[in-house]
Design a protein that fits this description.
Elements lengths: L4 E4 L6 H9 L4 E4 L10 H16 L12 H5 L11 E6 L3 H11 L6 E6 L6 H11 L3 E4 L4 E2 L4 E4 L5 E7 L2 E7 L11 H12 L3 E5 L8 H9 L3 E4 L6
Parallel strand pairs: 1-2, 3-4, 3-10, 4-7, 5-7, 10-11
Antiparallel strand pairs: 6-9, 8-9
Length: 237
C-alpha cells in the first residue's frame, strides 16, 4: 500500500474509473480543473489540492476491505415510513473505504441516514450505487425537497451542500449552491449544523476518516443539542 492522490480530468463516463481508484486504495481523487490555475478562481482549486497532498503525506494506507457479504446485505433492505431518528455521517480522505464498512455493519431499521463524503460531482451517483450494493441501507444521491425515510441513506451530490429541515411530515433534504465551507462543497459542517437544528436529541452523528476541520463544529453542535456523537480514532483512520 502506498499513499496515492489522483488528479484527473473526470467526465460522467469516466467517473466509474475514479471510483474504482478509490476502492483500490487511492487516498483521494480530484477533478482536474478545466481552466488555468493562474487565472481567477484558481486559488480555491490550488488550496484544495495542497490540503489533499498534505493529508495524503500522513495517510496510513491499508489493503482494501473485501465486500463478500454484498448479496446477503442487499437482501435485508427495508421500505420504511418517515424516519424516526437521524444518522448523520461525514467523511473525507479514506471515506470511500470506511463508509461501506460502517453501513454494512449498521441495521437499517429505525433511522434515516444523511451522508456527506468529500467527492467530485462526477461520481457521487456511482458511489451511492456502490454503497447500496454493499449495505442493507437503500442508498442513493439526495434530491431537493424529499422526505427522509427509515432504512434510507441519502448521499450529498458532489458540489452541492446538503441541509436537513424539519416539517410536519418529518425531515426533508434541501440542496444548496451556497459558497464552499472549509474549502469544500458539500461540507460536513453545513449538513451537521442543520441536523443539530432540525433533529437535536433525535440525531446520532459520526465523523469518519478525513482531513482538516470540516465537521468538527457540526459534530459539537449536535452534541450540544442532545444528540449522540462519535469520531473515528486516528489509529484506524
Amino acid at each position: 500500500p502506498l499513499p496515492v492522490v489522483v488528479l484527473s480530468s473526470l467526465t460522467q463516463t469516466g467517473s466509474s474509473m475514479a471510483l474504482w481508484a478509490l476502492e483500490l486504495g487511492a487516498v483521494e481523487v480530484l477533478d482536474k480543473p478545466s481552466h488555468d490555475l493562474a487565472l481567477e478562481g484558481g486559488d480555491l482549486a490550488l488550496a484544495r489540492l495542497a490540503a489533499v497532498v498534505r493529508g495524503a503525506a500522513g495517510a496510513r494506507v491499508r489493503r482494501r476491505w473485501s465486500s463478500g457479504l454484498k448479496h446477503k446485505l442487499s437482501a435485508r433492505k427495508r421500505d420504511g415510513g418517515p424516519a424516526k431518528r437521524v444518522l448523520a455521517l461525514g467523511a473525507s480522505t479514506g471515506g470511500t473505504q470506511a463508509l461501506p464498512q460502517v453501513l454494512a455493519a449498521l441495521p437499517s431499521d429505525g433511522a434515516g441516514c444523511v451522508i456527506v463524503q468529500h467527492m467530485p460531482a462526477d461520481f457521487t451517483v456511482s458511489f451511492a450505487a456502490r454503497l447500496d450494493e454493499l449495505s442493507p441501507w437503500r442508498v442513493r444521491e439526495a434530491r431537493h425537497g424529499e422526505l427522509l425515510h427509515d432504512g434510507e441513506a441519502l448521499l450529498a451530490p458532489g458540489d452541492r451542500h446538503l441541509v436537513l429541515q424539519r416539517d410536519p411530515q418529518g425531515w426533508r433534504t434541501l440542496l444548496r449552491d451556497t459558497p464552499p465551507v472549509n474549502f469544500v462543497r458539500p461540507s460536513v459542517d453545513v449538513m451537521m449544523l442543520s441536523v443539530a437544528r432540525a433533529a437535536g436529541s433525535a440525531a446520532v452523528a459520526a465523523l469518519l476518516t478525513g482531513m482538516g476541520r470540516d465537521g468538527a463544529s457540526g459534530l459539537l453542535a449536535i452534541r450540544q443539542a442532545g444528540g449522540r456523537t462519535l469520531c473515528q480514532d486516528q489509529e484506524s483512520s
